[in-house]
Amino acid sequence: ASPSSTMGRFTVWDYVVFAAMLVISAVIGIYYAFAGGGQKTSRDFLMGGRSMSALPVALSLTASFMSAVTVLGTPAEIYRYGAIFCIFAITYGLVVLCSAEIFLPVFYKLGITSTYEYLELRFNKYLRLCGTVLFIIQTASKPQSHSAILTLYTGIVIYAPALALNQVTGFDLWGAVVATGVVCTFYCTLGGLKAVVWTDVFQVGIMIAGFSSVIIRAVVVQEGIGRIVNDSYYGGRLNFWDFNPNPLQRHTFWTIVIGGTFTWTSIYGINQSQVQRYIACKSRFHAKMSLYINLLGLWAILACAVLCGLALYSIYKDCDPWMAKQVSALDQLMPYLVLDILHDFPGMPGLFVASAYSGTLSTVSSSINALAAVTVEDLIRPYFRSLSEKKLSWISMGMSLFYGGVCIGMAALASLLGALLQAALSIFGMVGGPLLGLFALGILCSFANGIGAFVGLVTGFVISLWVGIGSQIYPPLPERTKPLYLSTAGCNISSENLMTTENPLTTVFNTPTAERPALADNWYSLSYLYFSTLGTLITVVVGIIISLLTGGLKQNTDRKFLLTKEDFLSNFSRSKSETKVEVLDSKRFTVAAEGTDNPAFSHIEMDVASDKNKVNGLHI
What we know:
By secondary structure, the chain is an all-alpha fold. It contains 25 helices and no strands. The protein is globular and about 75 Å long. About 55% of the residues are buried.
């Protein structure tokens, strides 16, 4: 309750803990640059040589899912809107099921590096180009956490936490941004996917440690977890069940389960940075296991974030630091709490900041690696066939370096154009829905053709943009978002710098109701979680109709691009040989009379292209 001048600031020990986290991450990168003969081919660099096992990949998937936004934003979300956020536990389960049983089998048996290769194999090269371009735009603006409705851009992912931590702890802002950016680029460029995965494993450990220290200390301060739960219950924070079917309500059981599933499947099922990692597993069994183990990680992190949020409420229920002007934004509540309760423990605030930054590092590193992979596989390799593997692996490293630099530049841009960028990006974040629809068409509908898929994608994209831009211009009213009551009754501060205890959001969005068009309160107020759902469904429906009208039933689609019964049933046969067969073993294909001098460009892909010319006549 004291003004932040008397709160703890960062000490030497905190900086030491933070620096240690960066140094260890960098060392892992150096190790993988030279271990096992280094990165000989671009496939080693981008795919870890397809030899990863399930556990590290699972932890890595968990880590990049969790950015600093999760560490700082989710507890604040629960503090503000209550624990209905827990329903995401169900969503994560559904997302992992869909990814592992629908998308993974197809991508794995085709052995592709870039998920967008699939679009060319299944439809044509123009759709592959569309997918690639949309992906690069989207990753440059990836929705890494749902608690930020704003889709966050790699630059904002670096900048936002730095800003929040800086304002509360006095932690050096640009020092942190540049240090994280440089270390990240360094280990991505040297060590490739293996380094990304193993640094992620280390960073998950740090994140859990940071969360745990806060939870344990908060329980001690509040004399037992019972009191925290009790306070939350009486403060209306345990609002788990809200079965209101209204799609305009921001978070209800249905928006989270249905909308959340579509939103997150577009990230887990088809997003290059996630797919790239589970395809890098050594067998399909390991790939599926990595997704299911990662589910446990997601649940653990969700539980930690929820507990932190409830602890926040329990400690500040009588004096909300946000309305008492102690912090200027909700995502500063966590750092504020940490300094409040852990300032007597040297190095502990540093551990928390390190955990927030681990989130940033893992998110950014997976983005850099994925962007490098997509650029090399979709924009360079198809057009420069003569490049040797050694050259391609150097180019991959160069791309990692380049994108790392771009990310730091973006962070600088984010500091100048924060609000503008966020609006633009939350609109680009809607790209995920239509893309998911495009892949669903390819994998689930044998009669979908290139024309249908293209028209569907465009329609879905246009409608998503329309809703997205609308919701940016006319933000939904507070009765749609339902913020819970916060109190400043117990604060011992002079009353004039207090806001009224009415919901502060109403004071911000004071658009006179007369100006809001009829569309604003129904169509544009759609829960942000439904944006993806809308895009996906429209893409699929339009795609099916157009495909049927343009003779989609006449084409013969090769079975291996579709999800088949065998893919599903092979789950139950545990014979290792069968799961192993699927891995593209470059040794089997070295002597193929295809006339290409590039053994790592698997000849399966060549065969596919030639088969397709015979079959469907649509391969352009």
